[in-house]
Amino acid sequence: MTQPAGSTPPEPEKSKLPPRDWLLLPLLGLLTVCLVAALTEFLARRAFSDSVGHRPACSVRDDNPQGARATPNSICWEKPPEGSLTRYDFNRCGDRAGMECGVKPPGVYRIVVTGTSVAEGRYVPREQTVAVLLPTALSRLAGRPVDLYNASTMQGFLDSTPLRLDDLLANKPDLILWLVTPLDVWNSSFVSYDAHPPALPASAGKALSLQRAWYLLRKAYAAGSVQEVVRDHFDRTRTAFALRYLLFESQSQYVKSYLMGPDSESGYLKSDLSPGWRQRLQHFDQDVALLRQRAAASGVQLAVTLIPYRAQAAMISMGRWPAGYNPYRLDNEMRAIVTRNGAIYLDILPGFRAIPNPERDYFPVDGHPNARGESILARLLADQLFAQRVPAPKPPGRQPILLKQDRK
Question: Which of 119, 261, 337, 400 is deepest in the core (most CB within 10 A)?
């Protein structure tokens, strides 16, 4: 049968989705996203696990006139997501020194180190830290026995060092070595562990749980800050940690990301320091003056150095940086302050020019030096101290010193 001329065939009737599919398909998509997110988080937690016990468990947290310190005669374990399980042994003075406080071996030149977690050697076994490697290297260079007592502690920022000066001097130092990081300068007036966010009620649920997320979302909705809470909650996941770890493996991407941080984190790298950083350098000047005066009264030398952060070391190694930035600016300011007050400044930053990719010697996300980084810091510090004739080298013509590990 033929189709009449001028007529068009009828269009096939389009099939319509059942009403229930309009509900099931979005739910199926949402379920798929949730399953992928859960699997990703599970794998990230397996790859970047941390320990149940935490280093702060060995910390004295009450506000006190002695500043930050660890619990005397305590032992703690800590595993960062990027590293291995680390043990911390603290003596009767609460120091990770590997020896008792107040006892100086006869005939040795003693260095007492003070500073924060970088100086303490956080996340690194004690035998691989600056506190152990530096006196060994310096003993070989100077040809005389050098001993080092590590009195550093977590969050022992600038004001904690003058507060603990009597404890430092009680260890009979010939030299106090102050290892300072940019964060120490920014947190100059923070002296104890008493600053903690208020605890959430039991109804908020456990950290990183769905109950906690729902509680925070409801609270954020009431305050009109849902976006910030969602971003903050995601930042606490291992998925976010894994993404940062992969991104920060790239030198250029890491530096670019770091420079986008707030002034409190990356402002020290700018060519023109902000009023906030200048104010904190004035505070640093006061602390150096006080420490130098009291140390000199006891016949003790004072040496200060800036320990660079990961991005700063990378910029120096690259030899180039964006306009408006200068990785040496804070170093120059601190050198002027220290030398003006009559102390010794150890400038180790130029040493990073000859180190390719020094950011690999730090934990990518956390930012603390790893074991390789501790070894580099020990070498650079030993070279600078020896160049300053600290300690004074042995007279020529004498037999070289035999260190304990050299005596076979």
Answer: 119
